[in-house]
């Protein structure tokens, strides 16, 4: 009898232990390290309290990092969801052509960011890139995609959107296929226009899917690292430096572990606040069937 009561806890124990060891413990240890000045090598740590945080918010470079992260996240999430939604509405049909296009759009999602970054570095090369060659054919001057502060961050947004639309499109299609068809049939009998059907039926019924994708896209965009590390290294002139790459630089290049941990705590707080705001503001508009 006792074993019957303990069995559920025993079955989830391995997952809880792994989650606590690799997720919960690192978060609390990061908070602990943020109060110290440590170079990752010395056996001793100097307690500094909140000095790392005061130094962090006093740095102009960090303020630029916050701005870059906010702009990158907003543009990436907005355009990824918008383009994916329109693609899903177009591809939510039966046929070989539509299935082929779905597979083609989804393929970037399964390719590693390292490979994608190398590909787009060639495409966006200022002198020999395919994009500038195509622009030259129509008489447009070359664009300094990755080497100019005004265009580098937006170039990374293009890469992120290109990689992200495949996954989001398929999730949207799954959401569209779960909408009862009798609702569309009733709307057609009432001679509702396509725009009215989209606004009154499709979007409300698709709101749980849209809410889910918005949250995970926001969290993923704040954690971008691979693309920046390979394509721009945070430059030019700090124009593409974001939270995770900034933490990596100060933690594993400059060995300021306490300072990097403080930046990590700020990132954790920012993502937590934004997630709560998402749930507070958007969850009310989600229509669960």
Compact summary:
The protein has 289 residues and is an all-alpha fold. The protein has a single domain (59-285), classed as Orthogonal Bundle (MetI-like fold), CATH 1.10.3720. The protein is built from twelve helices and two strands; from the N terminus they run αββααααααααααα.
Question: Can you give a write-up of this model?
Answer:
With 289 residues, this protein is mainly alpha-helical. The chain has a single domain (59-285), classed as MetI-like (MetI-like fold), CATH 1.10.3720.10. The chain has helices spanning 2-33, 51-58, 60-91, 96-106, 113-123, 130-137, 152-177, 181-189, 194-222, 226-231, 243-253, 257-282; strands at residues 36-37, 46-47. The chain has a two-stranded antiparallel ribbon with strand order 1-2. The protein is globular and about 75 Å long. It starts with a helix and ends in a 7-residue tail after the last helix.
What is the N-to-C succession of helices and strands? Answer: HEEHHHHHHHHHHH
Q: How is the main sheet built? A: 2 strands, antiparallel
In CATH terms, the superfamily is: MetI-like
CATH topology: MetI-like fold
Shape: globular
Task: State the total count of DSSP E strands.
Answer: 2
List key phrases describing it:
MetI-like fold, globular, mainly alpha, two-stranded antiparallel ribbon, 12 helices, 289 residues, 2 strands
